[in-house]
Amino acid sequence: MNSNIIKVFRQRSKFIILLIVLLGGVNSVLNGGLLMFINNTIMQKPLPYFPQFDWLIFILMLLGSLLCSRMFQTHMVNMTNNILFEFDLNILNRLKHASFEDFEKLGHEKVYAVINDTRVLGHAPEVFMNAFNSLIIAICCFAYLFWISPVGGAIILMVMVALLVFYMIRNKQIEKQLNQQRDLLNSYFMHLNDLLRGFREVKMSLLKNENIFTKYLIKNRLMVKDISIDTSIKYMNNELTGTYSWYIVLGVIMFLMPRIFDLTIANTTAFLVTVLYLIGPVAVLVALIPTYTAVKIAAERLNSFDKEVGIIEMKSRSNENSNILDKCDFDNIRFEDVTFWYSNGDDDRSFALEPINIQIEKGELIFVAGGNGSGKSTFAYLLAGLYKPKSGKIFFNNQEITDDLHFQYSDKMSAIFTNNHLFRENYDNLNLLSTNNVLKELLQMLHLTDVVRFDDKKNNLGRDFSKGQQKRLALIYALLEDKQIILLDEWAAEQDPGFRKYFYKEVLPILRRQGKTIIAITHDDDYYSCASRLIKFDYGKIVSDSKLTDKNIEINCPSPKI
Ligand SMILES: Nc1ncnc2c1ncn2[C@@H]1O[C@H](COP(=O)(O)OP(=O)(O)OP(=O)(O)O)[C@@H](O)[C@H]1O
After folding, report:
1. Which residue, among 559, 470, 474, 472, has the nearest Cα to 516 in the 3D structure?
2. Is 93 in contact with 51 (CB distance < 8 Å)?
3. Bridge partners, 111 (sequence order)
4. What ipTM score was computed for the predicted complex, to two decimals?
5. 380 CA: nearest ligand 1 atom
6. Where in the chain are all domains bearing CATH 3.40.50.300?
7. What top-level class would CATH report for the domain 321-547?
8. pLDDT tens across 244-255, in order?
9. If we measure between CA atoms, which residue out of 89, 128, 83 comes closest to residue 294?
């Protein structure tokens, strides 16, 4: 089982675990005691001590058991919920510190499925503790049976062990099916993700609508249903075998044992009552087998999730380097022989960027151009610190960006990617109130004044915008973040021709005058002359890098003070 999961269990206070085990143990012994008490009363055997107070002892045992039971359950509820919380926290922490690269490889569906796994794991202690209690009761019962008749006790023990072996063997087959079910859950979330994100496209095509449901989602559920029925029937068969084996045991006690071992009626009755009493705890122990299998599978999946997301040591964020990049204003970024590639397998590179050597200076307005698939966005991800170079180095103000500086490096710039996401909440704590004059000027600059709806209560803006308006709003948010470097990936693609011209000829120069360094990926060759530098990519390689004349910088345009 994964070391992290064990850590979550181990982190519980030893005292609480000991208390729970103790309470469970005492309760089980009291339960066993109550059974013997009842048996003795049936057999009309008086108690060896204080027989005249048997009723009081019975009540005291009952109260003791109730009290232990209640305390045990309360602690269990607390522990289970704390563990569930810690599992959630563990996953959220992983995501918090995960790199974009790891997350991209992982996919959304695995995150959803792994959250499911934590639910299974969180309830594990409860089940195991109940099983532990049942085991103690079973041990007490067997001790009692051996005490009444060692041979009889041995026979029943043998039957039980045989049953257990039978269950274990059958369970091995079921485990494979449960693993299959878990794989199907992953792909179910993947298709569901496709459906929910592409709902509009699905509704536009009868064929797509039909296929995504029948060939993927419903087919997946059908397979899960079939496997689930099969495993449930296997478990049911196991349980029926178990239950009816008990009746055979009862038959042996009733008809065979009195004859073979010469048991008295009183002893036979004691045997019967004890075995009947044993059915409950043994059933709990047997029910543990599927739970154990489910827990094992969930733990393995969580383990591989941990590995895929990668572990980033928290100390790397808290060391003395932590604010090394904060201390200085942006001066330059330098790529030294930076390479990157996507791979299908171990050595199979589907696309590779050839070593990049460039230097970006403060105040530049760089356009990055090139055909589709030439590597512009991959370069942008490297520049943004979302991808780490496979080889080579990136320097920020001559400071090498080592692994522990990557998050800070990314934080130095604002980026708007092609498939930019507008968040529902104001996670950046921006001032989005209607009283913010800077915001008002930016809205004016990007022609959104009449479109935007302020929500002063939530310090947020309404979200009903067209694609082009969303990009403009994203740019406003990026400018409110007030970072010195702005990275734009085909930002103007959704803008109308008039606004596009205004953007290239007026907005970008204003931003430049304010000291921003802008790197914009663009296919708008009509406006390449607006840049101070043009970098062209082709087949993963920079094929040209030319400085242009700064003719568009001095434009008379109202300049918002940001
Ligand atoms: N996550 C990924 N995994 C594997 N290959 C990828 C991934 N992202 C991009 N690629 C591949 O890398 C190559 C370069 O892609 P990139 O997105 O950098 O091109 P681009 O120049 O930005 O193209 P476009 O102008 O179409 O946006 C493409 O061949 C693409 O198939």
Report:
1. 559
2. no
3. none
4. 0.96
5. 18
6. 321-547
7. alpha beta
8. 877 888 888 888
9. 128
